[in-house]
Design goal:
Blueprint: H1 2-9, E1 16-18, H2 25-36, E2 42-44, H3 52-61, E3 66-68, H4 75-83, E4 89-90
Parallel strand pairs: 1-2, 2-3, 3-4
Amino acid sequence: MLISEVRKKFPNVELTIDANCDYDLKSFLNIVPYIDTSNICMVEQPFAHDNFGANIELKKVMKTPLCLDESIRSIQDVENYRTNNGCDIVNIKIGRV
């Protein structure tokens, strides 16, 4: 897995992963063990912006912090994710919000 190879080569570099909405829940769950054992700072936006349920499910099993940006389009989105433990970090894009 690429994550493991990068971590081996750069063991002390802070790494984040931006998935750019490219995954569905089932596919992403397959790589969570690699992520959780690779000392990644955070994973950003693995699912489509409107896939609220997938983010909630992911947070139940992934230890690495989850950051959302495309999913945050209003203060209500922040509140919904906070209330439902749907992410750890919010990256606010001023132009979008």
